[in-house]
Design a protein that fits this description.
- There is one protein chain.
- The protein has about 350 residues and is of the alpha/beta class.
- About 40% of the residues lie in helices and about 15% in strands.
- The chain folds into 2 domains: about 130 residues, translation initiation factor eif-2b, domain 1 (Four Helix Bundle (Hemerythrin (Met), subunit A)), CATH 1.20.120; about 200 residues, Translation initiation factor eif-2b, domain 2 (Rossmann fold, 3-Layer(aba) Sandwich).
- The strands form 4 sheets. It has a 7-stranded mixed sheet, sandwiched between helices. Strands 11-8-9-14 form a 4-stranded mixed sheet, with helices on one face. Strands 1-2-3 form a 3-stranded antiparallel sheet, covered by helices on one side.
- The structure holds 5-S-methyl-1-O-phosphono-5-thio-D-ribulose.
- 5-S-methyl-1-O-phosphono-5-thio-D-ribulose (MRU) binds next to helix 2 and strand 9.
Length: about 350
């Protein structure tokens, strides 16, 4: 049973602190939207769909604390709450998608009594959380049909239960293939600098007894050249209208390697990750994180003091390197511009 990293219990949003896994399993409690924003920014919770779910709870908590009863004034303050949450991480579009959905629900219930409107918003946040798991399961059912029995699958970063409401996108496809009785094994890139692969993907797959082998990021090409990988599946933080896909830094490198070795390269993501307003990947905002993530590893300095550092947290894989994009509404395999628009419409 895959872990659910965000729980809502007795008015409290509980999040599994992903900064401490796999060595410590600590749950933190949130009831204030500013603290939820900080949890997203500092990566207590991470992964595109999961930060969307967390932001929805943050928005509901922010709404609960607004005293103003006249809707126009209430909504102006609610928009400020949503803006603060939206500013935490720029690349994953699911964050803005969830907040837009919360704003739409508020507008659609503008005539509701003040207390009822706040309850409606909290219910919507719970709905977004629950729906995300169902979406992942649907995506998994579509995606597993692409996976052969016996497949050895390379994945990058963590696009698993921990990165979503539960079950996962890339790992959701893998879980669905296992549930369909296929004999699957996974190779997990460690994913420097934040080590989502080494710390999180291995942890959650081992909990489900799915065979997983950890490698350093620079080993993928070697394994491919030796015929030890059959396909690649990754998640996504934002998919542009033409299929260009932003995902964890290093994904692009893996896609180039997969093309060189004639291996299928699959992206698995909910339709909420597709940004039809973004024509192609060139304008997707790429988060740059603190240089200490590169100069340090496990709290230890590994580079000279004062060295110049770059730390882009994501890269963009061009659509031409992607074999298929798997969503809960079906699979896009070619002519992404038309196929993705149709999949989003089917949402
Ligand atoms: O910086 P992170 O850990 O939030 O980045 C996560 C990823 O890049 C995931 O692959 C992506 O969000 C998809 S998660 C289902």
């Amino acid at each position: 049973m895959a872990v659910k990293p965000i729980l809502f219990q007795d008015g409290v949003c509980r999040m599994l602190d992903q900064r401490l896994l796999p060595t410590e399993e600590v749950w933190l409690d949130y009831t204030d939207y500013r603290e939820v924003a900080e949890a997203i920014r500092t990566m207590v919770v991470r992964g595109a769909p999961a930060i969307g779910v967390a932001a929805a709870f943050g928005a509901a908590f922010g709404a609960r604390d607004i005293k103003e009863e006249r809707f126009e004034l209430f909504f102006a303050q609610f928009e400020e709450v949503c803006s603060l949450l939206a500013a935490t991480r720029p690349t994953a579009v699911n964050l803005c998608w969830a907040l837009e959905r919360m704003k739409t629900v508020a507008r659609n219930n503008s005539a509701a009594p003040h207390t009822e409107l706040k309850n409606i918003l909290l219910t919507e946040a719970c709905r977004i959380a629950d729906a995300d798991i169902e979406i992942n399961r649907a995506l998994g059912r579509h995606g597993e049909k692409l996976i052969a029995d016996g497949a050895r699958i390379l994945t990058h970063c963590n696009a698993g239960a921990l990165a979503t409401g539960g079950y996962g996108t890339a790992l959701g496809v893998i879980r669905a293939a296992v549930e369909a009785g296929k004999n699957i094994s996974v190779v997990a890139d460690e994913t420097r600098p934040w080590l989502q692969g080494a710390r999180l993907t291995t942890w959650e797959l081992m909990q489900d007894n799915i065979p997983v082998t950890l490698i350093c990021d620079n080993m993928a090409g070697h394994l491919m050249s030796k015929g030890e990988i059959d396909c690649v599946i990754v998640g996504a933080d934002r998919i542009a209208a033409n299929g260009d896909t932003a995902n964890k830094i290093g994904t692009y490198t893996v896609a180039v390697l997969a093309r060189e070795h004639n291996l299928p390269f699959y992206v698995a993501a909910p339709t909420s990750t597709i940004d039809l307003d973004m024509e192609d990947g060139s304008r997707i905002p790429i988060e740059e994180r603190d240089s200490s993530e590169v100069t340090h590893c496990g709290g230890h300095r590994i580079a000279p003091q004062g060295v110049m550092v770059r730390n882009p947290a994501f890269d963009v894989t061009p659509a031409r390197l992607i074999t298929a994009i798997i969503t809960e509404n079906g699979i896009a395999q070619s002519d992404y511009s038309t196929a993705l628009a149709n999949l989003v419409k089917g949402a």
